[in-house]
Specification:
The chain contains seven helices and eleven strands. The protein is α/β, with parallel strands linked by helices and 229 residues long. The strands form two sheets. Strands 6, 7, 8, 9, 10 and 11 form a six-stranded mixed beta sheet that branches. It has a five-stranded mixed beta sheet with strand order 3-2-1-4-5, sandwiched between helices. The longest helix is centred in the middle third of the chain and has 18 residues. The C terminus is likely disordered.
């Protein structure tokens, strides 16, 4: 299977090309530069692999939640590529891609993915590892750390820059006997591509017209969209 993926929902900008399980990628932390970087990254990967868009099986993108501008950009870019090459799209949760970075599943371990959403809130989702899989056990939400209700596990991983911003509040809330923090991790296209494999295989893809962003904070998204229209 051949899948091209992009992820621009945070200050990290990345693209990845998965070919039969092997991944090559580009990643750069470059706030406000995603528009200048993402298409050159895509071109570099295709050239490195000696491929064209038309030779791919599918496209994938981090559909959010995250920065309004970043999520909107990823959606627009992936729609344009899909229209050009007539390819299906796998819309992958940015939080799930982040949690997937925590490593191979360990039975009974809980992964808490948190991205700083500004305004005193985090983008949040809780995952459990069982049967060699990572499964979401909460809804994705944008919420103040103090308002969270979590399932407390003995072994846990906290991943994402939300943990860097709200380490004390979240650590007390989780109250795990063993807690590994990965506060510098950013979602990457590499994991988006890997997660997309199962979605493509299971028919969980959409057309370019139906590739939609997930903002969670709808009032802010609508306000910014109105300002930019």
């Amino acid at each position: 299977m051949k899948i091209l993926a992009i992820e621009t929902a945070t200050e990290g900008c990345s693209a990845a090309l998965l070919i039969n399980g092997e991944v090559i990628d580009r990643f750069q932390v470059a706030p406000r530069e995603h528009g200048n970087l993402i298409l050159p990254m895509v071109d570099e990967l295709l050239n490195e692999a000696g491929m064209t868009l038309q030779q791919l099986d599918a496209l994938a993108f981090g559909r959010g939640p995250g920065s309004f501008t970043g999520v909107r950009m990823a959606t627009g870019v992936i729609q344009g590529l899909a229209f050009a090459a007539e390819l299906p799209i796998a819309p992958v949760s940015t939080l799930t891609a982040l949690a997937y970075q925590a490593g191979p599943p360990v039975e009974g371990q809980t992964v808490y993915a948190a991205l700083d959403a500004r305004m005193g809130e985090v983008y949040w989702c809780e995952y459990e590892r069982s049967d060699d899989q990572l499964k979401a056990v909460s809804n994705e939400s944008v919420i103040a750390p103090a308002a969270l209700s979590v399932t407390q596990g003995k072994q846990a991983i906290g991943i994402g820059h939300g943990w860097g911003t709200y380490e004390n509040e979240l650590t007390q809330l989780v109250n795990a006997s063993e807690l590994l923090l990965l506060p510098n991790a950013l979602p990457r296209a590499r994991e988006v591509a890997q997660l997309a494999v199962g979605m493509v295989r299971d028919g969980q893809t959409v057309s370019a017209d139906n590739a939609l962003p997930v903002y969670l904070r709808d009032n802010v998204a609508k306000k910014k969209a109105q300002q930019q229209s």
